[in-house]
Amino acid sequence: MNIKVLGFLAAILSVGRQSSCDCPINHPQTSICVSQVAIRCIITSPKLTSPERDLWGNLVYFKVRQLVIIKGVNLIQEVQEVYTGSRLSCGYNPGDYFQNREFLLFGKVHNKNSIFLYRCSFLKLWKELTWFQQTSIMGNYQSGCNCEISLCMKGMCFNRTVPHECQFTDDVVPWTGPGKDPYFRPQYEGMVCRRQSNGSCGWDSRITPVRSFEWR
């Protein structure tokens, strides 16, 4: 096999890896409901290389100072490190820019004092979350974990009526409310999906006094 053919195959594999690292659009409620651990923390170190490996290379990690553990207090006492995969395995690299800044992140338990973060795990600067999101993280979202949020693509789900689902339509229905900001995403930024009085699931923009029993 000549060099040109090898180069062509390498390019195809590279594109394939890049495509496989693309993330679906998840509502914050979906992310916290499927995660083992949710914390508010400050990243205190640059990216470090771990001796642990996955199929594609060494894992990387960064140190954090935990501020609040929102979910997973029965699984881990204090998160001190956050691990992620190598670049080739779609690991998450927050970059030096994010050091000493406060984050909300969701992951799974890695070992006694660390969690694992995937490329598509939820990780957001705390100050960039809306007030509704910051408040709902403390319990509102988890109160709706018995409902399912289904992503609606190009209007394909508008004819579906499933009692336990909320249709996530932010990217297919333009916002026409106050301000008419084309980038405003009302369901993502200001709604929770939960059981209604008739037993079905529906979008709700109210903040109710529900606080996670796991919060510490």
Structural features:
single chain; alpha+beta; OB fold (Dihydrolipoamide Acetyltransferase, E2P); Tissue inhibitor of metalloproteinase-1. Chain B, domain 1; 2 domains; 5-stranded mixed β-barrel; two-stranded parallel ribbon; 4 helices; 31% strand; globular; disordered N terminus; metalloprotease inhibitor; protease inhibitor; disulfide bond; Netrin_domain
Description:
With 216 residues, this protein is an alpha+beta fold. The protein has 2 domains: 25-129, OB fold (Dihydrolipoamide Acetyltransferase, E2P) (Beta Barrel); 130-208, Tissue inhibitor of metalloproteinase-1. Chain B, domain 1, CATH 3.90.370. Helix content is 17%, strand content 31%. The protein contains 4 helices and 11 strands. Strand 2 (48-54) and strand 3 form a beta hairpin.
Summarize the structure.
Disulfide bonds join 21-90, 23-120, 33-145, 147-201, 152-157, 166-193. The protein has helices spanning 3-20, 28-34, 131-136, 186-190; strands at 37-43, 48-54, 57-71, 81-84, 102-111, 114-117, 123-125, 148-151, 165-168, 192-195, 201-204.
Summarize the biggest pleated sheet.
5 strands, mixed, barrel
Order of helices and strands: HHEEEEEEEHEEHEE
**Mean of pLDDT:** 79
Task: Using the coordinates shown, work out and report the CATH topology of the largest domain.
Answer: OB fold (Dihydrolipoamide Acetyltransferase, E2P)
Structure summary, number of beta strands: 11
Oligomer: single chain
What is the correct CATH architecture of the largest domain? Beta Barrel
Instruction: Going across the biggest sheet, name each strand in turn.
Output: 1-3-4-6-5
| Class computed from helices, strands and strand pairing | alpha+beta
Shape: globular
Distance between the termini: 60 Å
Classify the beta-strand content into a percent band. Answer: 25-35%
Figure out the total of helices. 4
How many domains comprise the coordinates? 2
**pLDDT under 50 segments (min length 5)?**
1-18
The helix content is 10-25%
The CATH class assignment of the largest domain is Mainly Beta
* Rounded radius of gyration (Å): 20 Å
